[in-house]
Design a protein that fits this description.
3-stranded antiparallel β-sheet; 99 residues; elongated; alpha+beta; Arc Repressor Mutant, subunit A; 3 strands
């Protein structure tokens, strides 16, 4: 007799197993290594800083899609939290190291 036949909810999945399967299906981004290497010892960083200095992408190529690509790498790295900050007198989204 299966768990479902015994009345267990069929929609619940073991969290750790589900996350492991989902992670194994993710396509890795070629920028992940260079981005995480660049931010390894930084206390705060911006997407613009990473695009310009780590990836050497010219400023005129910094569109929303490349910014989001970098931000998604930062989020998955789980080393930073998003916080408000000021850079050169302008309000900017800054990623601040956890802890």
């Amino acid at each position: 007799m299966s768990d479902v036949q015994r009345g267990a909810p069929w929609w619940e999945m073991p969290l750790e197993a589900t996350e492991a399967v989902q992670e194994s299906r993710q396509v890795s981004d070629t920028w992940t290594g260079p981005v995480l290497d660049y931010v390894e010892h930084m206390l705060r960083v911006t997407a613009e800083d990473i695009l310009t200095n780590a990836l050497k992408i010219p400023l005129d190529r910094h569109d929303r899609s490349v910014q989001m690509r970098v931000i998604n790498i930062i989020k998955k790295g789980d080393m930073f939290i998003k916080g408000p900050g000021w850079i050169d007198g302008k309000r900017s989204n800054v990623w601040i190291r956890k802890g």
